[in-house]
Amino acid sequence: MADIADLQSRVTTVELTPVQLANGAKELLDEVATGKITGEEDRYSHTDLWDFKANVEGSQGAVAALRPVIDEKDPTLGPLLDERFAAVDALLEEYREGDGYRLYTDLTEDDIRRMSEAVDALGEPVSQVAGVVTS
Amino acid sequence: MVIPFRGERQAGIVTPAQDRLHFVALDLTTDDRERVRALLQKWTTAAERMTAGAETAPGGAVGGNPEAPPADTGEALGLPAASLTLTFGLGPGFFDKLGIDPALRPPGLAELPRFTLDQLDPALSGGDLCIQACADDPQVAVHAVRNLVRIGFGTTAVRWSQLGFGRTSSTSTTQATPRNLFGFKDGTRNLKAEDGPELDRHVWVQPGDDPAWLAGGTYLVARRIRMHIEIWDRTSLTEQEVIVGRTKGEGAPLGATAEFDAADFAAVGPDGEPRIGEVAHIRLASAEALGGVRILRRGYNFVDGSDGQGHLNAGLFFVAFMRDPHAQFVPMQRALANNDVMMEYIEHTGSAVFACPPGLADGQYWAQPLLEA
Ligand code: HEM
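That is the input. Now the predicted structure with protoporphyrin IX containing FE docked in place:
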């Protein structure tokens, strides 16, 4: 699994190859999909939606670094990614409470299902990035 | 064997029932009609390819860019088409969410009434769309559903899905009658592919029925029926046969000898009682008792693991096709729910109704007659 802080710092200095960046973007979302949404990850004790948000931002940053190549190779993918990232952001905003977010333990099953659906919707186009930038 | 994907009628309805089922109900996660149309086009292409035994896209499983995830998930590589059919249906939410002209909404999608003893779980009920995958190989059916679900991410999300491991109905006179988990032959007196005019009367929405775009289509009623098989298995053979109204071995109507002998509902035994009891399942569900109503049953046995209380989570995933659910399924199920002794051994836990459009002409995509009506 990519380390978020490390990935983000390296995104800005662009030390990663396009494929590594693309896979990093995907892995950050995979981590959300398999651990952070289901709440199965006890490793993140007292997790709240900050972690979710941080992973999504990391993923978005990596994709942004690749955006010129994406737009050149597949002009339909970029706008789709924008829309799906925006949908996840909008959903997260609904759970904002003060400076932070609602705790996982306070989310309903329906809340979790909506997040899971939004991450699935985002994960598919993000998983296409590596193929597109190497095409 | 390859079952043609296109034709006047959708496949998977009067197609001789294949042995395995994977049924999925999906919800739309968008109200954008163009996006839904684009998905239906992609689905149709992938579905047509898979029913011919091909990958979702050419070179889909391993022939693409190695840096990209494969377009096809791969578990059906090397497997034949296995008679795969993919039958497509639209639920009430499809019309609501897309704001479709109420004049185009199939009236049969009106909510079913609550039946006595219904124990419906919302998580196993409803859906804006359905895809019924039937095949002779479970891997082929699951592969098809999995790949269509994947293509749908961002536009649809899975609401519920159901595997069926064995057919409980014959839908053609060319098929032997299979058995359900009560051990009885099921489908003996079903509507069958060879029934021509009876199918027009009971299964296919006819020109002149409402709405016009649905003519040549049908309605699908799905009911997930949990069967308390452990309790049934403690019931005497005689009692089991009285409940059904047929013999267990041969499947003959009580009072007759062979499976396909006509059921004589008027026959009275030496004790003065009707041979086929007043509340026998086959009497209550018969056209004779229901003013001529019939349906085409195409259900599957399931065992979804166990229930945590020492029992198998087993049952019958009831799928039936008909011209009007409210005129056909409703009176039939009402009669069964109120009077069928079998109700002591079963529990309806899921329910959904879908309108299945007519078959596709060359170049058409799923639901095109509706979206371009
Ligand atoms: C677990 C639930 C059920 C079981 C085990 C079951 C079993 C059977 C069996 C063994 C037969 C006799 C063979 C045949 O003609 O197919 C039969 C007939 C039939 N069943 Fe069911 N059934 C179930 C649920 C239903 C439901 C929910 C309906 C419809 C609402 C239904 C409608 C019919 C009809 C229409 C017939 C044919 C009746 C005739 O004309 O003889 N069944 N069923």
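Chain B touches chain A at residues 29, 64-65, 67-69, 150, 153-155, 157 (CB under 8 Å).
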